[in-house]
């Protein structure tokens, strides 16, 4: 296979900080055991976000739909809306996973405080907006690191450069 000598394949992509969301959540709704795992829905009450590229508020009304698999891994799918400080609306769909040893997962599911180095919580957010000044959100790739606190979730978003 031929390679282009102008490419620097030894350099990994850069992660550029975009914003950190502080999302306030309500008590989880336990749906129960379904064919693909235990289903939980966590309503989003609102919140805020701030960072070098984006700031504003998390609007109430979204939710995080979780499936807890037989191996204990939580597959998460959160959908919610952001309003920037300038008034632009951004639709967010954030998919990811959260896993840890069983005792730690049980603490997280109960809403207890667990230090973030005790579990893995990563997501891939995608964004939609009609604001031309924010079109980069709809074209670039992003990854995020999550931290679950008793009444909120912190989500640190990075642009993959």
Core attributes:
10 strands, 2 helices, 10-stranded antiparallel β-sheet, globular, single chain, mainly beta, Porin, 7% helix, 161 residues
Compile the SSE list and pairings.
Layout: E1 15-25, E2 29-34, E3 37-50, E4 56-58, E5 63-68, E6 74-84, E7 89-99, H1 102-109, E8 120-128, H2 136-139, E9 142-148, E10 152-160
Antiparallel strand pairs: 1-3, 1-10, 2-3, 3-4, 3-5, 4-6, 5-6, 6-7, 7-8, 8-9, 9-10
Assign an overall shape: globular
Return the domain count. Answer: 1
CA-CA gap between termini? 25 Å
- Helix-strand string: EEEEEEEHEHEE
Protein name: UPF0311 protein SAMN05192555_11231
Family: Belongs to the UPF0311 family.
InterPro entries: UPF0311
Organism: Franzmannia pantelleriensis
What would your notes on this structure say?
This protein is mainly β and 161 residues long. The protein has one domain (15-160): Porin. The protein is built from two helices and ten strands. Strands 1, 2, 3, 4, 5, 6, 7, 8, 9 and 10 form a ten-stranded antiparallel beta sheet that branches. A hairpin with a 2-residue loop joins strand 2 and strand 3 (37-50). It is globular. It starts with 14 loop residues before the first strand and ends with a strand. 23% of the residues are buried. The mean pLDDT is 93. This is UPF0311 protein SAMN05192555_11231. Pfam families: DUF3237 (PF11578).
Summarize the entry for a quick read.
The protein has 161 residues and is mainly beta. Helices cover 7% and strands 54% of the residues.
């Amino acid at each position: 296979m031929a390679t282009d000598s102008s490419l620097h394949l030894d350099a990994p992509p850069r992660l550029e900080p975009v914003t950190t969301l502080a999302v306030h959540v309500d008590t989880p709704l336990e749906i129960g055991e379904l064919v693909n795992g235990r289903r939980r829905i966590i309503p989003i009450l609102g919140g805020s976000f701030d960072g070098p590229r984006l700031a504003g508020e998390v609007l109430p009304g979204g939710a995080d739909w979780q499936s807890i698999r037989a191996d204990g891994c939580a597959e998460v799918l959160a959908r919610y809306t952001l309003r920037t400080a300038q008034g632009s609306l951004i639709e967010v769909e954030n998919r990811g996973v959260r896993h840890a040893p069983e005792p730690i997962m049980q603490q997280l599911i109960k809403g207890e405080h667990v230090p973030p180095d005790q579990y893995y919580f990563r997501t891939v957010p995608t964004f939609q907006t009609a604001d031309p000044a924010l079109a980069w959100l709809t074209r670039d790739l992003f990854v995020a690191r999550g931290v679950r606190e008793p009444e909120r979730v912190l989500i640190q978003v990075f642009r993959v450069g």
